[in-house]
Amino acid sequence: MAPARKLVMQPGPIEFSDSVLQAMATPSQSHMSPEFAQVFQETLIKTRSLFKSSNDSKSQPIVLAGSGTLGWDLVGSNLIDSPEEKILVLSTGFFSDSFAQCLQLYSDNVDILSAELGNVIDYSKLESHLKLKNYSIVTVTHVDTSTGVLSDIAKIASVVKKISPSTLIVVDAVCSAAVEDIEFDKWELDFVLSASQKAIGVPSGLSISIASKKVVDKVLARKSRAKNFFANLQRWIPVLVAYESGKPAYFATPPVQLVHALNVSLNSILSVPLDERFKENLKVSQDFKAKLGKLGLKVVPASGAETSALTAAYFPENINPAEFLSKVSSKGVELASGIHQGIHPKYFRVGHMGVSALDHTNGRDDVQKTYEAIKESLIELGYTVPTK
Amino acid sequence: MAPARKLVMQPGPIEFSDSVLQAMATPSQSHMSPEFAQVFQETLIKTRSLFKSSNDSKSQPIVLAGSGTLGWDLVGSNLIDSPEEKILVLSTGFFSDSFAQCLQLYSDNVDILSAELGNVIDYSKLESHLKLKNYSIVTVTHVDTSTGVLSDIAKIASVVKKISPSTLIVVDAVCSAAVEDIEFDKWELDFVLSASQKAIGVPSGLSISIASKKVVDKVLARKSRAKNFFANLQRWIPVLVAYESGKPAYFATPPVQLVHALNVSLNSILSVPLDERFKENLKVSQDFKAKLGKLGLKVVPASGAETSALTAAYFPENINPAEFLSKVSSKGVELASGIHQGIHPKYFRVGHMGVSALDHTNGRDDVQKTYEAIKESLIELGYTVPTK
């Protein structure tokens, strides 16, 4: 009766390591015990390292029960003081637009600067927007999971800093943290939000962020009524500061087992230099994309705008999306369907992050297995692979 | 180096069964797969049963990543339309007051009717409040974890229905679901919120609620701007309805492993009639309280107002709280300190829910072990146990 285990090769949740799954089964532990405080302390310190931030004078890591979506509310409810504030959302797909929808609950002045499908935003348009209006926040989705487009955060941050130095720079790193480079201190970012279930390699259920000192000071100084309770960083920051110093504190019960799992996954992620990890994942991604190219498939992102985290590729002509995904699934590999408005029936998405991309012990090669399932499925559906 | 495992006997997180912990380690599964949709479907149906609601024409179960605290925002942001609305919070302790603090973010008219310490509210005062103002919502904390006081929901609901039938009745069941009786349909409740880590017996990380048809209709008909994104039930209800019909849908990634764990725990909870479970836990609680009484300890709640979920007991004279808790902890049992304003250094709290109260396989008796640790610690700290 039990369905066979399938390889989860969608852009999140990804496959989890055995050690992370073991940590999920950590027996009960009091959230107020010194033992848990030590684990949470280690986890917060490593979360800061993941974003290449040096120390607590620069940044505050934030780990809460929730999801990537909750991170958008953290931004909206804590960084926007009044609905008059002007926000600029740089959009490279469905998830950027969803972030904008969230921010529209907190501001009446959310502008969206959209890139062309599959491409990064036009920097000259960004410059003219910044010159025209005084934006309090610019948001950018590092990897839009809907299109697989990688935005150049260093470049965008430098443009914003040059023209509008007081504007806060917010990065949605849900699908980029632990697979694409994020230099929180160096690029002078203000808020980066992520989640557990993508390249960070931990089951869904955690909202993982980092805030700059500037944001922390702004939040702690706020006198106006908070916009909600659970996502109120004025409540959480003192609790997180206490835990990072090794002392338990209470606002709402933290997800103890997920924090253990995050700690274990960050141990693994930080066991080699991050840049090596990114380089290795880039190679896996390039090889996979090249192989799909040889099959005659075209990827959604423009050349130079492809993330290492996933591949979004168009179906060949005459391939039925549902039939294809179901056939690949029957071969033991779960892919994701398209989600970006307008083109969603025309393409599919493959995640290649975490252990699936990087763990080759005992001959493991999830990405190769995925490629073979895709190729065989296409052939079985009548597709003729180009001979050259 | 690794600290020895301690029995977690605080009022949440509680001890988890092996089968629940195994479910926490469920290998990755797509949140959009038919396999997960089936598990989430089963889980939602059983969540409705937990609250003794009969079917989807009566109620909508809600399971989200979060915590008990997030449940307060679900109420505030979805059930309160305007800051002019009058809300009455019935308070039996710290957690009732915290719920009021959350609601004060959404309404300018939150009245608090506080019970005397350790007691339930005065019903004649409730009646006069309801006659004086037109409250849109009355909230009651079923078991205030700070005091161990059990409120009589049936009684309160009948008073509200009699005097102000249109008022929504909201119950905070964080520390009561699965240990105290909740008759959602029969008592005509409108919203009950809970969390995973107490009597429901699942690691922290889930917000678990149930909404009446009246609330669902109100939420779905709302035209005004939502107050936040993640906790917006207008977004979640269609997704939860889809999952309950066995079909995946997407708003934010659900916490797949925690949902599996909840499914497993609800299987166990619902394997015997709920009333038998409550009766058995009541007996465990009464025995434990009687034993503490024989030791000369006085409980915080008044006679008849004690919950089965936990025991809040005053220290004898000359016992130092920190020394006591640390001594009990050194005997392998974790208790919780007092938290209620004014008396918090004078008492401690013991949780006796879930497997710790009810699992006696292989001679297991967590509550007895806890009693012995308490007694020995008191004696070692110089306390003389009364001889009669």
From TrEMBL, chains A, B:
Pfam families: Aminotran_5
Gene Ontology annotations for the cellular component aspect, listed alphabetically: peroxisome
UniProt entry tagged with the keyword Transmembrane helix: no
Gene3D superfamilies: Aspartate Aminotransferase, domain 1, Type I PLP-dependent aspartate aminotransferase-like (Major domain)
GO process terms (BP): glycine biosynthetic process, by transamination of glyoxylate
Domain spans labelled Aminotransferase class V: 24-350
Ligand binding (substrate): R349
Required co-factors: pyridoxal 5'-phosphate
EC number: 2.6.1.44
Entry GO MF terms: alanine-glyoxylate transaminase activity; L-serine-pyruvate transaminase activity
N6-(pyridoxal phosphate)lysine: modified positions: K198
Keywords: Aminotransferase, Pyridoxal phosphate, Transferase
Similarity field: Belongs to the class-V pyridoxal-phosphate-dependent aminotransferase family.
Protein name: alanine--glyoxylate transaminase
Provenance organism: Pachysolen tannophilus NRRL Y-2460
Lineage start: Eukaryota, Fungi, Dikarya, Ascomycota, Saccharomycotina
